[in-house]
Each structure stands twice: as structure tokens, then as C-alpha cells.
Amino acid sequence: MSYFEIVTKDPGSRARNCKINVIHGTIQTPVFMPVATQATVKAVSQDDLQKIGAQCLLSNTSHLYLRPGLEILEKSGGLNGFMNHKGPVLTDSGAAELHPVAGGD
User: Fold this and answer.
1) Edge-to-edge strands, sheet with 16-22
2) pTM (predicted TM-score)
């Protein structure tokens, strides 16, 4: 199985439709990822996320490192276990939010 697969291409542009195959499922692009910065999509249950067809959630590594912390995430079976989410989760560092660039406004 390929991790990244181009499904279709538009001959008149660089647009394409792709599949990204990861451990917890397949993500078809383009994709809308609900934001679960601190391991939860605010005011939306896991059941509702499944019903609306959310393929992947977006979370934030720096925020999770600070709270709840690595120990709790590990005891929960990783981020998916902690979130009670069976599908893919994309994480970003988010470090700029916690450590602004010197001299930046």
C-alpha cells in the first residue's frame, strides 16, 4: 500500500485529488480537518464527527505537551486513546504561539 496516492489530476491546472493512507485510516484530499487543539473539538461529540464525515482531526503538539502532558497521553494509549478517536489525527507544533519570534509583534 502506498502512503500517498494521486487519484485524479486536472489537466488544465496543478489541482489534484489524493489519498493519504496512515495507520488510523485514509484521508482523501482536499479535506476539512476540524480543529481539536487540546484534544477535543469544542462542543462536538465523536459520534457527531463521524456523522459529518470528519476524516482527520487537527491537534497541537505543544499544547498537549503542556496539558495534559506526555505521561497522561501515554497512559491513555496515545493521542487517539486520550481523544477516544479512531481516525487519523494531524498534529502541528504550534510553538510560535507559545514562543513568539524575537522582535515580532
Assistant:
1) 4-9, 16-22, 25-29
2) 0.81
DSSP lists the bridge partners of residue 16 as 9
Task: Tell me the mean pLDDT in the region 81-91.
Answer: 93
Cell of 76: 491513555
Q: How far apart are CA 8 and CA 5, in angstroms?
A: 9
DSSP H helical ranges for the chain = 46-51, 61-66, 70-75, 78-83, 95-98
Cell of 72: 497522561
Torsion angle, CA of 18/22/27/33, rounded to 10 degrees? Answer: -130
CB atoms within 10 A of CB 58: 16
- Note whether 56 and 27 are within 8 A (CB): yes
